């Protein structure tokens, strides 16, 4: 695996290559990330990953400075997964001057996760567009666990007419149903045992919807109440349309149930498509 930090070096290495598939990450890689690398191989013949902890998408109360940096271990995992190129810029490499030009997503950025993390999706869209311009892939893979992020990137790519196929990678879970996440490492042993409850509550909503329940608000409240009783602090549980995350008026469209809730000091997110 070739590793490049400078934009010019990566562009030179990729010059003339076709079938480039890109998987951007912030490092601290786990089996979920590696699954995305493996899925990428099905969409092209050159897999490029990136590791960059993007300051623009962290709010003042987020954990930018605490975010785990595990570069050597990440490189070993990427090499074992058969990744061809790794782009690992420093902040100076990627932002040699203040990033004054930024991508402003539409109203979707201000709901669900965006309501609780103002400016987050602006930072995500900006860095992803910049990475796209650097790598110039034919396809890019983003995990479905970050469902709202996937929608923002997919819609940005379509509306800006970028010649990139956005692939949604399936969520990888532990045996007890917990979605794999870099933030799971913050959980205590007791919290880790409790954490699968989030997925169980989403499954209850899914099952109720499949049985014909149409009162979305009631289902959302029941899940939030169950989490609260168990000691969680919930930002949202929401039933939304898959296409644009709008509030559904019918159960006869593809739906997704999303949630974000804090267990101790760790904020966990999850979703289930229906």
TrEMBL record:
Keyword hit for ATP-binding: yes
Short name of one Pfam family: Pantoate_ligase
Example GO BP: pantothenate biosynthetic process
The organism's place on the tree of life at top rank: Bacteria
Primary location group: cytoplasm
Residues of the active site: 33 (proton donor)
PANTHER family: CYTIDYLATE KINASE/PANTOATE-BETA-ALANINE LIGASE, PANTOATE--BETA-ALANINE LIGASE
Protein name as catalogued: Pantothenate synthetase
Originating species: Candidatus Dechloromonas phosphorivorans
């Amino acid at each position: 695996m070739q590793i490049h930090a400078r934009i010019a070096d990566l562009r030179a290495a990729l010059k003339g290559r076709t079938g480039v598939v890109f998987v951007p990450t912030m490092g601290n890689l786990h089996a979920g990330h590696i699954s995305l690398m493996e899925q990428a191989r099905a969409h092209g013949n050159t897999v490029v990953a990136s590791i960059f902890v993007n300051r623009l998408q962290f709010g003042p109360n987020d954990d930018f400075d605490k975010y785990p940096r595990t570069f050597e271990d990440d490189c070993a995992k990427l090499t074992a997964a058969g990744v061809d190129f790794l782009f690992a810029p420093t902040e100076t490499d990627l932002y040699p001057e203040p990033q004054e030009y930024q991508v402003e997503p539409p109203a979707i950025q201000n709901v669900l996760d965006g309501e609780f993390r103002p400016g987050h999706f602006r930072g995500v869209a900006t860095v992803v567009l910049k990475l796209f311009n650097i790598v110039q892939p034919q396809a890019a893979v983003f995990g479905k666990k970050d469902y709202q992020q996937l929608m923002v990137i997919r819609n940005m790519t379509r509306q800006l007419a970028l010649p990139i196929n956005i692939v949604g990678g399936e969520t990888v879970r532990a045996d007890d149903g917990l979605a794999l996440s870099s933030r799971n490492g913050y959980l205590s042993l007791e919290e880790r045992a409790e954490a699968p409850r989030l997925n169980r509550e989403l499954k209850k909503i899914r099952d109720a919807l499949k049985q014909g329940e149409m009162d979305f608000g009631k289902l959302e409240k029941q899940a939030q109440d169950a989490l609260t009783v168990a000691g969680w602090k919930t930002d949202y549980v929401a039933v939304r349309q898959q296409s644009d995350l709008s509030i559904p008026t019918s159960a006869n469209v593809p739906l997704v149930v999303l949630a974000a809730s804090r267990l101790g000091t760790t904020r966990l997110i999850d979703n289930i498509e229906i």
